[in-house]
Amino acid sequence: MMDHAIALTEVQYLNLNFLLTIQACLKSDRAAAAYKFHLDRTCAARLASMSVSQLQVLAANMPHESLFKPVGNLAELLDAPPGLAMTLCTVGARPPVRPPGERAASQAAA
């Protein structure tokens, strides 16, 4: 019997599981995990170096606030046919990338 079990809110549970998942992915393949979870180098290094206990404390101190926000086009994903979800998620997840020549021209004009 677990007499000392900690009761987590749904949000705390989600935050902890997400942090642990990201950390496991970072330890397996840091570059792929950073891309997959949209992490910059600093966040990736920090998360990879944290102990499970530190991740638990972080999650425990966030009882009502998710550390991870839904993608910006979640409403479109919910309404889309399942086969289009991945494409819509990819398109909506990052700002559009402009070709190098177009970037240079817009920077010169600014």
UniProtKB/TrEMBL annotation:
<keyword id="KW-1015">Disulfide bond</keyword>
<dbReference type="InterPro" id="IPR023559">
    <property type="entry name" value="Flagellar_FlhD"/>
</dbReference>
<dbReference type="InterPro" id="IPR036194">
    <property type="entry name" value="FlhD_sf"/>
</dbReference>
<keyword id="KW-0010">Activator</keyword>
<keyword id="KW-0805">Transcription regulation</keyword>
<comment type="function">
    <text>Functions in complex with FlhC as a master transcriptional regulator that regulates transcription of several flagellar and non-flagellar operons by binding to their promoter region. Activates expression of class 2 flagellar genes, including fliA, which is a flagellum-specific sigma factor that turns on the class 3 genes. Also regulates genes whose products function in a variety of physiological pathways.</text>
</comment>
<keyword id="KW-0963">Cytoplasm</keyword>
<protein>
    <recommendedName>
        <fullName>Transcriptional regulator</fullName>
    </recommendedName>
</protein>
<keyword id="KW-0804">Transcription</keyword>
<keyword id="KW-1005">Bacterial flagellum biogenesis</keyword>
<dbReference type="GO" id="GO:0045893">
    <property type="term" value="P:positive regulation of DNA-templated transcription"/>
</dbReference>
<dbReference type="GO" id="GO:0003677">
    <property type="term" value="F:DNA binding"/>
</dbReference>
<dbReference type="Pfam" id="PF05247">
    <property type="entry name" value="FlhD"/>
</dbReference>
<keyword id="KW-0238">DNA-binding</keyword>
<dbReference type="GO" id="GO:0044780">
    <property type="term" value="P:bacterial-type flagellum assembly"/>
</dbReference>
